[in-house]
Amino acid sequence: MLIEAYFLHLERVLASCPQLEQISLTKERRGPHIGFVQGTITVSGAIQLFVMEFVQTEPRLFKRKYRYHCHDGTGTSLFRYDNAPHHVTDTFPHHKHIFSPSSGETVIAAQPPTLEALLEEVVRLAP
């Protein structure tokens, strides 16, 4: 798959989610099968999802580097998925940070989420 096809897939996923209020994504082609995506998605005016992906689409879709950080309208962190090699888990380096006022930060093993899964998770958190 060419990187442009992946970019088009992202646009279709975003267009299919009516709860999104604002989308600001930059997509950069770095080669026929390599690209960079970065930006912010706002859901219901209160939840923001910050997206960063450095992806390769051949021989299969592979997220070389990614970070998805979600926070509420007050700036309080809710969760973050990333593959930074700073937490050793069952699926190292893939993991999810979950932030809770009562228990603080918890890190669990997690595979890289799809944009569809991220949007479902964020919409569930929206007021």
Descriptive report:
Helices cover 19% and strands 47% of the residues. The chain has one domain. The chain is α+β, with helices and mostly antiparallel strands and 127 residues long. The chain has helices at 3-15, 115-125; strands at residues 20-31, 34-43, 47-56, 62-71, 77-82, 95-100, 104-109. The model has no long low-confidence stretch (mean pLDDT 93). It is built from two helices and seven strands.
Task: Please state the structural category.
Answer: alpha+beta
Give the CA-CA distance, first to last residue. 37 Å
Note the overall shape. Answer: globular
Per DSSP, what share of the residues sits in E-state strands of 2 or more residues? Answer: over 45%
Count, helices: 2
Main sheet, how many strands, which sense, barrel? 7 strands, antiparallel
Radius of gyration: 15 Å
Main β-sheet, spatial strand arrangement: 1-2-3-4-5-6-7
Number of domains: 1
On the 0 to 100 scale, the average pLDDT is 93
Secondary-structure element order, as H and E? HEEEEEEEH
Number of strands: 7
Low-confidence stretches: none
> Helix amount, in percent?
10-25%
